[in-house]
Specification:
The chain contains eleven helices and ten strands. It has helices at 30-43, 86-103, 112-118, 129-136, 144-154, 182-191, 211-223, 250-261, 277-285, 306-322, 325-329; strands at 48-54, 60-66, 71-76, 106-107, 110-111, 119-124, 227-233, 237-239, 264-266, 289-294. The strands form two sheets. It has an eight-stranded mixed sheet, sandwiched between helices. The protein has a two-stranded antiparallel ribbon with strand order 4-5. Helix 1 (30-43) runs parallel beside helix 2 (86-103) and helix 2 crosses helix 3 (112-118). The two termini are 22 Å apart.
Length: 334
């Protein structure tokens, strides 16, 4: 199967990224994310934005779209609150791709204009803005949302608060909200003690019961993408399967992602193999869906890892947009 070979060694990429619209040296709160999105759209008219939904606490879940190509791809980040470092990764990608296209330049050795002529790239950088704000300090101690979260966390003293928080502020894990083995996920998580709203691993009362997950599913159906990426942390691994469902081109594309990133193509741990966003996409669309576990360490990962995470994933973003072989020519083309 033919692949798009991206010949740029990692050492050629800048190790520090601090300039530009998207700040990469401060925690990515909801306010910082919103401001970055506004400035990106203002600076680069090719970037279109839209609100997908509002959370229970009034924060917007936004999408950015750029490119005019027939191939459609959808990249998502910050499903989990303490994995917020993935949000600036997608925002910085949008900034550098749009900037390179405007100047006629390249990104990861490929013409940026060619990328945007080949693909329509849809990004949802912060699926869980309420939870992210709790972890990054966007929600002040003593406020009603903070007190609500504290009350939930008291029942789970083994989970550090707020650093261990993954859920939205209703105590529902947004990456356990999809109708793809949801009952099995509930069985597993209930056996672990997550039977009610919790800082992590509570599946909710029903699949797609939370507005964030419901809106992302609706948007995915609307975009009808050739593939989806869900950025998480950590482990430097790429998960590409769901219940052995055969997906044409998925392994080959996953191997290309592994090659350009240095991450390992891996099997999902059994206890985490159900009800996730990429699981649902593989099940319902029969197209490649990937969870990318970025970086290494204990969540939340420090900002000192940002440049490395961005460098490693940039090749994945470009390879995903360009596609390969039959996988690129088929699904997700208008």
């Amino acid at each position: 199967m033919k692949t798009h070979n991206l010949h740029l060694p990692g050492i050629a990429f800048r190790e520090v990224i601090v300039l530009g619209i998207v700040p990469t040296d401060v925690p990515m709160t909801y306010e910082v994310c919103e401001r970055s999105i506004r400035e990106l759209a203002k600076t680069y008219p090719a970037i279109k934005t839209r609100v997908l939904t509002e959370t229970a606490f009034g924060r917007s879940v936004q999408a950015l779209e750029l490119g005019t190509g027939r191939r459609r791809v959808l990249y998502t980040a910050a499903h989990h609150a303490n994995e917020w470092i993935t949000a600036p990764v997608l925002l910085k990608f949008a900034e550098e791709l749009a900037g390179a296209a405007a100047s006629g330049g390249e990104i990861r050795g490929v013409s940026a204009r060619f990328v945007l002529e080949t693909a329509r790239i849809c990004l949802v950088p912060m699926v869980n803005p309420d939870g992210v704000d709790l972890v990054t300090g966007g929600i002040r101690e003593g406020t009603q949302p903070y007190v609500l979260a504290e009350k939930i966390a008291r029942d789970f003293p083994d989970v550090p608060f707020p650093a261990g928080w993954k859920a939205n502020l209703m105590g529902v894990d947004l990456n356990l909200q999809y109708p793809a083995g949801w009952l099995r996920a509930r069985e597993i998580k209930f056996s672990q003690g997550y039977t009610r709203p919790a800082p992590r691993d509570y599946v909710g009362r029903a699949p797609l019961g939370q507005p964030e997950a419901r809106a992302l599913a609706r948007y995915t159906w609307e975009v009808d993408p050739a593939l989806v990426l869900a950025l998480h942390t950590q482990g430097r691994e790429i998960y590409w399967q769901f219940q052995d469902i055969p997906v044409p081109g998925a392994r080959e594309l996953g191997e290309e992602f592994a090659r350009v990133s240095g991450y390992a193509l891996a099997e999902v741990p059994a206890a985490s193999g159900f009800a996730g966003y990429k699981d649902w996409f593989i099940q319902d669309f029969r197209r490649p869906g990937f969870t990318i576990e970025c970086g290494l360490g204990e969540n939340p990962l420090p900002l000192s890892q940002f440049a490395e995470i961005y460098r490693d994933n940039l090749g994945i973003f470009i390879a995903g947009a360009l596609g390969q072989g039959k996988e690129a020519a088929g699904a997700g083309a208008m």
